[in-house]
Design brief:
Length: about 130
C-alpha cells in the first residue's frame, strides 16, 4: 500500500513515512489530549507509552495486538527504548518518536539496531 502511494505522489518510501509519522503524532496530540496533559518533555511521554497509553488503548480495543516498549535512560539527555512487535512497524515507531520530539520542540537523533532484552529479540531505538 505504501509503495503504491509513493508511486502516485512520486516520493521515496522513507520521505513519505517520515511525513506520515509527524502528521500522525500531531493528530494523536489533538485527538487524545488527555495523554498529553501535564507532560512537558518528550522522554516523559515516551516512557508512558506502555504503562499508561497502551492500557487505555486496550480498554477501547481489548483484542488489539499492541507493540511493547521498554526503556531506560542512561543519562538525562538520552532515552533508550526497545520495541517489540510481531507486526514489525519499526520504521513507523521511529518516525512517531521523531514526531514526539518535534511536538515537544526537542532535537535529537533516533537510531535503530537489533538487540536482545529479557531473552527476546527486539529493536533498540536510541
Amino acid at each position: 500500500m505504501a509503495s503504491s502511494l509513493c508511486q502516485q505522489v512520486n516520493l521515496p518510501v522513507a520521505v513519505l513515512l517520515e511525513a506520515f509519522g509527524q502528521h500522525l503524532f500531531a493528530r494523536f496530540s489533538l485527538m487524545y489530549p488527555a495523554f498529553f496533559e501535564h507532560i512537558t518533555h518528550s522522554f516523559e511521554f515516551l516512557k508512558n507509552i506502555d504503562p499508561y497509553i497502551q492500557v487505555e488503548v486496550r480498554k477501547l480495543y481489548p483484542d488489539a495486538e499492541l507493540p511493547r516498549f521498554y526503556h531506560h535512560p542512561p543519562d538525562d539527555s538520552t532515552l533508550v527504548m526497545y520495541y517489540l512487535s510481531s507486526r514489525h512497524f519499526e520504521d513507523l515507531a521511529v518516525v512517531l518518536i521523531k514526531g514526539c520530539l518535534q511536538l515537544y520542540e526537542r532535537t535529537g537523533m533516533v537510531s535503530k539496531e537489533l538487540a536482545t532484552l529479557r531473552a527476546k529479540k527486539l529493536l533498540k531505538l536510541a
